[in-house]
Amino acid sequence: MPNIHGVRNCLFGLRLTPRRALYSFSSAPDVDPPTLSDPKTGRKGQKVRKAVISYYVLDHNLCTLCTLPSLCRLSGGASFRRALQGHLAQISTKYQKGFAAFELNMGEAHPLAGNNLLRKRFAAEQLTDDGEHMWQGDISVGTPPQTYTVDFDTGSSDLFLPGPHCDYRCKDHKVYDPSASSSSKNLFRSFALGYGDGSEVKGEQFSDSVQFSGLTATAVTLGVSTDYSSGFAKNAFTADGLMGMAFKSISAFPADPFVSSLATQNQIEDAVFAFKLAKEGSELSLGGYNPALFTGDIVYTPVTKEGYWQVSMDSISTNGTHAFEHVPAIIDTGTTLIIADKESVDAIYAGIPGAKDASHTIAPGFYTVPCDAIPTVSLTFGGKTFDVKPELFNQGPAGPEDSSDCIGGISALEGQEFWIVGDVFCKTVVYHLDMKNSQVGFAALA
Asked: What is the pTM of this model?
């Protein structure tokens, strides 16, 4: 018999025949055994008790599910609704994966796969982090599909994987071989991509089908790499490749990003996606967002120039004091820190007691702050202020012999005239990137 004493606040009804009387019960850990009654007569007793317990035996999985956040009655109606919506997201993803597997195994689409109720939802996958600065998940490429791990990067727009003729730095990465895919096509164009840390990749462009969590886009342009710089070697970059998720206008190929292709091919309703980045429970959803991951409302701010996810940051404050207002900022999952021009960063740390310029001890552009007095740094978007958690702003001790000073999460880049808002802030919120309406939404983590 299932454990009926550990179910908290589960509410069920049982329709019995031939009386067709509705029996209900409520149980909590402190009630042993649960109180059972007929809501019409108020009658209690062994007969009713056995009837409901029989329901447990036959359908105990329903009550077991009530211990999950997605189905439990939570405190507050909004939380309960978000949990139910999150559960629907999980169900949608489950069936999308099943339909994709059916088509792969049987060579034809499942007859229900075209149902808009499932097809035009969104898919979500858990992400893993590499040192909490690269956010990785699986995609499948080609026919038959092969699985690769990619870093999802909102600061670029192109997809690349190591090719069969890639140099020695591709060693230990999983190789994509277009000749092994019946759906690949050689586009007879070369490519060269460069990234902010100096890493580079070169190769040839192909197109092929790409799948994420049961959502498939065909004829997606991808780079088949022949040359990885040292920054993409396995010891520095654990993913096989990278998927850019910014706008087409900064694509070096140029080509539609994967999310845009999904929307164009009616795999998702709109070209939107959302990230939750955290030590545990990181998630990427395509086609929408999982409301169980955040609390309160999403606040939106428009993209000021399509290319990067560039918005106007209302303000940035330290310990409650505004430092700057209305500054251009790019939201970038591929950047660990918050980065700005040197003048702005100098001004911010000037307002933090005990801050020190660490350009000569750590690296140019860095500052330290007292480890026992980490400041409260706040960023405001769409009229709503979000505080950066002290443990996120603190990038660790400045050195083994000086543990009283810690490296600050804001650094300067000489000659830069805008802000890059990286994971120091992005791990504070769930954010919703909306290509269709050209806007970015922010909400507080649940």
From this structure: 0.72
